[in-house]
Amino acid sequence: MTMTDHLISVPGAISAQLAGVCSLATEGHRWSAGNVAAARRVLADEQSRTLIDALTERVSRRVGSAPGWAVLELPDRLGDEDLQRAAAGVLAALGRPFFSIDVGGGRLWIGNESSPDGDAASFGGFGLNRLHIDAPNVEYVPDYTSLLVMRADPAGGGASVVGDLGAAFAELSDCDQAALARPIYFEGRAEGLHGVGEPRLPFPVLERVGGRRWIRWAAKMLDDPRNAGHTAALEHFAAALARHTMSVMLRRGRLLIADQQRIAHGRAALGDQTGLADGTRRWLVQAKVAYDAHAPAQHPAPASSPVGGRHA
Ligand SMILES: [Fe+2]
């Protein structure tokens, strides 16, 4: 099943079943309870055991040494909606899928084709998107984030990048750790989001919640004038994170899952987009997951290891 350490194949039969029994229906900002239950019935079948074991080893919070990220490979021949249904079903192995940004229509998976409009460094832009976790500036940081590739960059760029937050943290001095634990940092705005509680600005980069460490990281903090005078520890952390970063090329059907307690993500710049017509450029969609101790890849959670699922 596992072709490389981080790549987990989702067999065609399981993908087809998930796409067949699930829809994209949501209840509020969450994938519907009926969908979650339907997906977990498929995942409870013996044929899904290898998949669940692989997810447990790579991304569950049940395994303290798990890397915290994985790339799932779904069949690229699935239609667009079936791909999104099957991918949501896989996410239900870890918790409850939800959207934090409402783009209308209760869409679980959000994101349009890459565009030159807007911020080149943001999701859906053409440029470099530096390492970050999603929504670092809210009360409840989404437990997991995921990116599903509907169409790769035809110009060959846009590799995804993952950074090991814990490994970078281990290289920090006590002084830097203390500085990052101060609730003085700003990043972006946090308005109109769902499933993440209230905005939290400023916030501590480093904090412990329920025995788990969060590192609220976004490289953009380095440039934010609101952080002027507090950037030394941020710069040290960015340098450490750069030493624990790897790049993965994603193609249609691949689903990157990252535990935001352990992994930051980003994107290399896209290739030369000159002459690429609408409908041919890179297209990624994203969904979040709220940790659920009863999800198939998290269960049974050891009583001695409290985890941070508490919202959405
Ligand atoms: Fe992101």
UniProtKB/TrEMBL annotation:
Keywords: Dioxygenase, Iron, Oxidoreductase. Signal peptide: none annotated. Residues 76-286 form the TauD/TfdA-like domain. Gene3D superfamilies: Clavaminate synthase-like. GO terms for molecular function: dioxygenase activity. Coiled coil: none annotated. Pfam families: TauD. The keyword Oxidoreductase applies. This is TauD/TfdA family dioxygenase. The lineage of its organism: Bacteria, Bacillati, Actinomycetota, Actinomycetes, Streptosporangiales.
